[in-house]
Specification:
Elements (H helix, E strand, L loop, with lengths): L7 H7 L10 H4 L2 H5 L5 E5 L2 E3 L4 E2 L2 E2 L2 E2 L6 H8 L6 E5 L3 E4 L2 E4 L1 E2 L17 E4 L2 E4 L5 H10 L6 H11 L8
Parallel strand pairs: 1-6, 2-9, 6-10
Antiparallel strand pairs: 2-3, 4-5, 7-8, 10-11
Length: 172
Amino acid sequence: CTFAGGTRELYDWLDENRDVAFLPVEVVNSPEVISRNHRMVSINAALAVDIHGQVVADTRSGEQFSGIGGHEDFVAGSGLELSDRSILCLPSTYRAGEEVLSRIVPWFAAGTVITTPRHQVDAIVTEHGVAELQGKTVHQRGEALASIAHPDFRDDLLAAAERASGGRSPVL
């Protein structure tokens, strides 16, 4: 790892722990180094995903939320070997005031900055399951993502997936 942040218990566990190595970020986050790990599994957080499988991990509503850190490095590094997995996790919904909104959306607004392009996404996980996206068609990706969305949003996402099939826009 490059850094750690957490509780006193974590720091006590890390102190002189020979099973943990702190290395420079250019080593830890190097896709080439990451890909040398046999059966590598990377787990990253995401803020939103669209019906095509594009992932946003560092902005919310067009505003910078965080840096991308090693997100893209670990997704790319884990995608270089067939035995590797790259897992992206997010809750299916969030609150905006009193409104509950889906983090899996039919499309992103123009100008949204994509952190991870759809062709690099392997699996997306929410509290409703896992959507395996690698090697799937646009329609299959949409169906898989709709299946792990909150049930209140699934019908609209399935309709968007149908519209997105064959290179059409998911927008009504």
